[in-house]
Amino acid sequence: MTEKSRQKIFIGVLILAMIYGAYNFWPSDQESGKPATTELSPAAVSKAPAEKSNAGLIDVEAMETLAWGDDPFQTERPAKKVVRLQSQKKPLWNLSGIVYNPSRPMAIINKKTVSVGDIIDKATVRSIENKAVILEYQGVRLTLTVNKG
Description:
7 strands, alpha+beta
């Protein structure tokens, strides 16, 4: 595309923009300051509805009673399910390390040094192996392993 053809296109677009502006933004008779008058006959006034219909409108008083965070535009509300969980706190055991010696193995659980037969947080140490410790808590055997990191 040459420089001459670019100039022709630019001038053409500029002229079209000026025509558009003159057509759309030139004040018309109604915008020139003359007030628009509309006469209503008594027959037209009597045909107007006496009360407005509330169909499609939102009841503000009902929406004010909603809990914070509820969607006021949602018309159908799902039933809220209340689930009660029994929070039974079980002691947690954190195995930090194992010092394995076949004659006397030891482990570090919850920052305490334990050996086989010791009780830590209501759990009994049943065995200590190379990479795991087996605890017994309320008749259930738990295996703890050392986490990397």
